[in-house]
Design goal:
By secondary structure, this protein is α/β, with parallel strands linked by helices. It has 13 helices and 14 strands. Helix 1 (about 20-30) runs parallel beside helix 12 and helix 3 (about 70-85) packs parallel to helix 10 (about 265-275). The model is unreliable at about 390-395 (pLDDT under 50).
Length: about 400
C-alpha cells in the first residue's frame, strides 16, 4: 500500500488500491464478452432466501438496535462457534460490529485509549492493507512482521522494543491475499507470553481447504479476540454485519467504547444475521462453488504457464510472475506488469500484489468470485492467445 502523506492541512489519505486499476479494466473490456473482474473479493452469488425474508420480519425497525448486539445474534454466534469451530464462547463474550473492516480500522485507536503507553500495531508483512491503515489513523506505528518461506508470520523476528509497546498483533487466517493458514495456537501463545492481545481476522474460516476450520479461540479465549464476518460465508457484504468474540474483558471494553461512539448494526440486519448463522447448508453449497472455481482457475493458469500453489483457505489464488522480481520493465513492479498482460491476453482484471505490502510485488491476486461461465471466458481467451508481450491501454 502506498503510504499516507501530510500537507500543511494535515493527513491526506493515500490512493485506494483498487482505484489504480483503470488501465486493466480498459484493456480487459476490449475482449468480446467484456472484462472478467476478479480483482475484488465481492460475492456475486445470491444470499439465502430465508435471510432476505428475515430482513422484513424482525419487527425491530422502530427502535434503536443494541450496539453490543441483540441477544438473538450473540446466541446464534455462540452456537455457530460451538458447532463449527468446537469452541465454547458465552454470548456475553460476543459483540456485534458493523461489518469487520471498520472494526479492523478502529481497534488501534480504541486500544490506545486503554493503553496510552503503547503505540505499535503488529501485522503480517503480506496482508490486507487495513491493518496498517488502522495504525496510521490512530497515529500509531505499524510494524510489519516478516513472513517465513512457508508464508506464516515469523514472530521470533519481532524486536523486543516493539513487543513491549505493542497494542495488538493482527493475524489473518486463512490469509488474504495468499490463502495461507497460520499457526494460530503458536501466535496466541506468543501474545500471552508478551502480554500483547492477538486479534485474529477469520472471515474466510468457512472456506478452509486444508483440514478443518481453525480459530484462535481453540487455544482458549484469554488474551485473544476472533473477528468474524457474514459477508463471505453468507454473501451478505451489503448488510455490513460481523462480530467479535473472545477475551471477555477485551470484548466488553471494545463494545463499551463502540456504544458511546454510536456504532450499531441495524436491527433487521441483526435478525437476518442470526438466521444466517443458524444455517450451515447454504454455506456448504457456497463452499463447493468456490472449490469448483478455484480448481478451474488453477488448471487455466497452469496451462498458461502460471502454475499456482493451491491455497490452504479463502477464495483467492496468489499467482507468481513467471520470473519473479525480474518480470518487469520500465521500473514498474512485476505485479503491475503481470496484471497488464493478463488484462490484455485474458480479459481478466486482477489485483496487483503490491497492494498487500512490498513482499507481494511479484504476485497478483485473483478472487474466484465470478460464476463459472465467466471464468470459462478467461480460460478460452488465454488458450487462444499466447501469454503475450507487455501491452498498454494506448496501443
Amino acid at each position: 500500500m502506498t503510504g499516507p502523506s501530510t500537507t500543511a492541512g494535515g493527513f491526506v489519505p493515500p490512493v485506494y488500491p483498487f482505484d489504480k486499476l483503470g488501465e486493466y479494466h480498459e484493456l480487459a473490456a476490449r475482449h468480446r464478452g467484456g472484462a472478467v473482474d476478479l480483482s475484488i473479493g465481492t460475492p456475486c452469488d445470491p444470499p439465502p432466501l430465508m435471510v432476505l425474508e428475515a430482513l422484513g420480519s424482525s419487527g425491530t425497525e422502530r427502535g434503536y438496535p443494541s450496539s453490543v448486539g441483540s441477544q438473538e445474534l450473540r446466541e446464534a454466534a455462540s452456537q455457530w462457534m460451538k458447532r463449527r469451530l468446537g469452541v465454547e464462547v458465552p454470548a456475553s463474550a460476543v459483540a456485534a460490529c458493523v461489518g469487520t473492516k471498520e472494526l479492523v480500522a478502529g481497534v488501534p485507536q480504541w486500544l490506545r485509549l486503554r493503553s496510552p503507553d503503547r503505540d505499535v500495531v503488529l501485522h503480517p508483512e503480506l496482508a490486507y492493507p487495513t491493518y496498517e491503515m488502522g495504525a496510521v489513523l490512530a497515529r500509531c506505528r505499524p510494524v510489519a512482521v516478516p513472513v517465513r518461506p512457508d508464508g506464516r508470520m515469523d514472530v521470533a523476528a519481532i524486536r523486543e522494543e516493539d513487543a513491549v509497546r505493542a497494542l495488538c498483533l493482527w493475524v489473518n487466517s486463512p490469509s488474504n491475499p495468499s490463502g495461507m493458514l497460520e499457526d494460530l495456537d503458536g501466535l496466541a501463545a506468543w501474545g500471552r507470553e508478551h502480554d500483547v492481545p492477538v486479534f485474529s481476522d477469520e472471515c474466510y474460516v468457512e472456506f478452509t481447504w486444508s483440514g478443518p476450520p481453525r480459530s484462535v479461540l481453540q487455544s482458549g479465549i484469554e488474551g485473544v479476540v476472533a473477528v468474524h464476518s457474514l459477508s463471505k460465508r453468507s454473501n451478505l457484504a451489503g448488510l455490513r454485519v460481523g462480530f467479535i468474540a473472545g477475551d471477555p474483558e477485551l470484548v466488553s471494553y471494545l463494545a463499551g467504547v463502540r456504544r458511546h461512539a454510536g456504532f450499531m448494526v441495524a436491527g433487521p440486519v441483526q435478525h437476518a444475521a442470526a438466521v444466517a448463522l443458524g444455517d450451515d447448508s447454504h454455506v456448504a453449497a457456497q463452499r463447493e462453488l468456490y472449490r469448483e472455481r478455484i480448481e478451474y482457475l488453477q488448471r487455466v493458469f497452469a496451462a498458461a504457464g502460471l502454475p499456482v500453489v493451491p491455497p490452504g483457505g479463502a477464495f483467492y489464488l496468489w499467482v507468481a510472475a513467471p520470473r519473479g522480481p525480474d518480470f518487469a520493465s520500465g521500473g514498474e513492479s512485476p505485479a503491475f506488469e503481470l496484471g497488464r498482460k493478463l488484462a490484455a491476453s485474458g480479459g481478466v482484471v486482477v489485483s496487483p500484489g503490491d497492494a498487500y505490502g512490498p513482499s507481494g510485488r511479484a504476485h497478483v491476486r485473483l478472487a474466484a468470485v465470478q460464476p463459472l461461465e465467466r471464468l470459462r471466458l478467461v480460460g478460452e481467451r488465454l488458450a487462444a492467445a499466447p501469454f503475450g508481450p507487455p501491452a498498454t491501454a494506448s496501443t
